[in-house]
Design goal:
Rossmann fold; eight-stranded mixed beta sheet; 12 helices; alpha/beta; single chain; 16% strand; 8 strands; 286 residues
C-alpha cells in the first residue's frame, strides 16, 4: 500500500507545504516551528499525537481561505531526545497559552484534533481567558486506557519499528474508521505519522493516561463546537457527544462517514462547520 514515487511526489509537493510563513519560537526550553497562513479572524490549530502540523496541512490550506490559521510543533516533534519533554498535558496547554500570548492574539478560536483536542480542552479549563471560541474533534474529557492503547505504548517504547511495519500501519488505518481504499491520502497519513519519533508517540500516550478534565468542564465559558466522526473507533461519537453535553452551551455535530482523521478525509465538511460557527460569532458581536 505504498504510493508510486511519482504519485507520492505530486502529493507531497502540493502547495500545502509551500504557502504561509514559518518561524521559530522558544517554549518550554525547546525551539518550536510556528506556521501561519491566510488572513482574517485567527484560528490556532493544535496538532495531534503524531504527524505534527504537516499532517494538518490540507486542513490548514482550506481554512486559510477565510481565516488566519496558525499551527505549530508540539514539544518533541523537532527534538525527540530533548530533556524538555512535557511532564503532563498541562505543560503542553501552558505552551499553547504562551504561544497565543507571544503572537499577540486576542482570544482566538482554538481548534484541537485528537491529542491536540485534549491540549485545547486543558487550556480552556485552566486559562479560559485565552480563548474566544473552542473547537474539538476526536477527543473526550477523560482518556480511557484499554488493552490496545497499552500494547501500542509498550511496543512503541521497547521495539524499534520500520516505517513500513505492516502491523503498526494497520493501526494507522483504524484512524479512517475502517479499511480505507488505497490512495494518496492513506499514504500521506502513514508517512506523516512516521515522521514523529515512536518514543514521542509512546510518551504522549502515557500523558493521555493521566488526562482528565471531567470535573473542570464547567469552567469553559466560550462558544464550543465538538465535532465527532460517525465511524471514529478511537473515540466513539457517543463519548464526544457526552463531552459536548458536559460543557455549558456547547454544540455537537456529527461528520457522517468520518473516522478519527475526519479533519482530513472530510476536511471540506469540517471547514464548513467551523466557518458557520465563526460566522455566527461575528454576527453576535456586531
Amino acid at each position: 500500500m505504498r504510493l508510486a514515487t511519482k504519485r507520492r511526489a505530486e502529493w507531497l509537493m502540493s502547495p500545502y507545504f509551500h504557502e504561509g510563513m514559518t518561524h521559530h519560537v522558544r517554549m518550554g526550553g525547546e525551539w518550536i516551528e510556528v506556521t501561519s497562513m491566510g488572513q482574517g479572524d485567527p484560528i490556532v490549530l493544535v496538532p495531534g499525537l503524531a504527524g505534527g502540523w504537516k499532517l494538518l496541512a490540507p486542513l490548514v490550506h482550506l481554512l486559510a481561505r477565510d481565516h488566519r490559521v496558525i499551527t505549530y510543533q508540539l514539544r518533541g516533534d523537532r527534538f525527540p531526545t530533548s530533556t524538555a519533554r512535557p511532564r503532563d498535558l498541562g505543560d503542553l496547554a501552558h505552551d499553547l497559552g504562551e504561544l497565543i500570548g507571544l503572537l499577540g492574539l486576542e482570544r482566538p478560536t482554538v481548534f484541537g484534533v485528537s491529542f491536540g483536542g485534549a491540549i485545547a480542552l486543558e487550556l480552556a479549563v485552566e486559562q479560559p481567558q485565552r480563548l474566544g471560541a473552542l473547537v474539538v474533534q476526536g477527543a473526550e474529557a477523560r482518556f480511557r486506557s484499554n488493552l490496545g492503547s497499552t500494547i501500542a505504548r509498550r511496543v512503541l517504547e521497547r521495539f524499534p519499528l520500520p516505517s513500513d511495519n505492516h502491523f503498526v500501519n494497520q493501526f494507522f488505518n483504524l484512524l479512517h474508521g475502517g479499511k480505507p481504499e488505497p490512495g494518496p491520502l492513506v499514504d500521506f497519513v502513514i508517512e506523516r505519522c512516521w515522521e514523529t519519533d515512536q518514543s514521542v508517540m509512546a510518551q504522549r500516550i502515557a500523558l493521555l493516561e493521566t488526562f482528565d478534565v471531567t470535573d473542570r468542564l464547567w469552567r469553559i465559558d466560550v462558544p464550543t463546537l465538538i465535532l465527532g466522526g460517525s465511524r471514529d473507533v478511537i473515540v466513539p461519537p457517543a463519548r464526544q457527544r457526552a463531552l459536548a453535553s458536559a460543557i455549558p452551551g456547547a454544540s455537537f455535530e456529527l461528520l457522517e462517514g468520518a473516522g478519527h482523521v475526519g479533519f482530513l478525509t472530510h476536511r471540506a465538511e469540517t471547514v464548513r462547520r467551523v466557518r458557520k460557527m465563526m460566522g455566527m460569532l461575528r454576527h453576535s458581536t456586531c
